[in-house]
Amino acid sequence: MQDNYPVTYLPFLIKAMLLFCINITPLPRAFAETSLTDSLHHQMIQKIEKEEKDSAFVNRVNAIAWAYLNTEPDSSLYYSEKALEQARKIFYLHGQAHAVINMGRYYRNKGNFPEALKHLLEALRLYEQDGDLAQVGHSYTDIGVVHNMNGSKDLCLKNFLKAKEVFEKLGNKKGIAHSYNNLGILHEYNGEDSLALAYYQKALEIKKELGNKQEIGVSLNNLGGFYNDQNDYSKAIQYYEEALNYFKESSHPIGLISTYSSMANTYLSFHQPGIAKKYYEQALELTEKIQSGVWKSKVLEDYITYFEKTGNYKKASFMYKDFIGLKDSLFNSEKSKQMAEMQTRFETDQKEQQIALLEKENQLDQIKKYALGAGLSLSLALGWLLYYFQQMKRKSEQELYQKESKLQRVQTAMAQKERDEAQMELTYNQKMLNFYMNHFKEKNQHIEQLKVQIEVLKNHKKTSKELPDVHYFQLLNSTLMTEEEWAEFKQLFVQVHGIFFEQIQRWEPAFTEEEIRIAALLKLKMQTKEIAGMLGIAPENVIKFKYQIKKKLHIHDDQKLESFIEEMGAEGKDT
């Protein structure tokens, strides 16, 4: 054991490592389906080699590296190096940063923390140059994770707080949730349980709002660990099982490893070693699958505790040798010192760059002062000329505005006049149409009176001399609305009711002239008896025509013909 990692500290350290890394590890495709055979891997390499080497190419290769980070780590490194090489050739800063941060995460998962920190600091620098503040926040989170994994709590907290500040400034909910989660872990380690629980719950609330299953699983896993440390094992198992479901749905091996291992520890504390062993085996199998020394170290340490508690000291001793060898390769004081120096050097470089920038700004201020003094006289002269031209321009603009206002008033008056004339014409046509209708109604009433008188005379068997003149009979047997009257009527009708005739014939081209006339009179809300009188036909015939019209228009039995016709022609009025 190294002096900086006492036995009582190491279990929580590696537990925290896992939870931190789940937070910032990208979501890969289903890891059970992404393992590449050598042949398929070779085919993919050949394919990308043939593509055009532009920024889109770099983005695609970076995406492949990101997808294989947890499932095919060596393939991930290969694609990251390919992307970085091409991004540098085309001076694509954003592509360089993505490639470098993927490489940093690769080295972190392998346990090479100095190399991981080197790449992550470089990614932070590139993202700052590129102006991508969201990725700056994620870079600070990644750097904090590596410091935590190496045992540097102060540097870890410093970087996590920087990440939180960036995400809050951007309003980036996902980043804020990550920061709350990470700060919760640190506060839990420091024994500040109420503060830790508050951060965990805030993180879970935001993640549920965002709906990311992997992230929800992370927070549930954290809460399970929290209640396990409080010896509330039933509640811990409840949270672990829920987290396990989310990690399975999102196919995230790191989340599964952490949850399997944590559940095994809880069941062991709960005096159920059989169930605990099953989860230890599942966790260890996954660490071998993703080739991660960090996660394997965690599972081995917990598994050793299991064998000690179950009395299998031989197995515990055998496994302890593997654990010590692996741990010593991951954690040592020299690496911690090297990484602290690297962080300090990066921050010093940042400050020197800020100082250099301030010096350049001061030089620019001096140049501006000299230029201001030399150009003051010229500015006054130019100012007078500018004032003169502005006055001329203002005068021209006022004249133009007055002319435009006058023109607008004239146009408005003309438009209003046209509207008034159109309204007057429509009103006149409506009155004329009403006049025609009243004329026809009066004519119809006179005819009806004559019919009654004639019938009375016939019934009293009057002589032919006592009967009205023959022109009365001709009037009775003729069409009350003549063709000339129909033409005048139709012209007025169109002026008032628009495209009614066109519309009804579009509905049914086979309409007869009698049916069209009856439809027009129905549009004017005339009754059956009035229509019969005007057209010189029997009311029974009008009813038959109405039935034929309704049938041709395909009107439902429960709908009135008059209501249907009333709605026709309204949208096409002439104005």
From TrEMBL:
GO terms for cellular component: cytoplasm. GO terms for molecular function: DNA binding. One of its GO terms (biological process) is regulation of DNA-templated transcription. SMART domains: SEL1, TPR. Its main location: cytoplasm. It is found in: Cytoplasm. It comes from the Bacteria. Transmembrane segments: none annotated. Keywords: Coiled coil, Cytoplasm, Repeat, TPR repeat. Belongs to the Rap family. PANTHER family: TETRATRICOPEPTIDE REPEAT PROTEIN 29. This is Tetratricopeptide repeat protein. It comes from Rapidithrix thailandica.
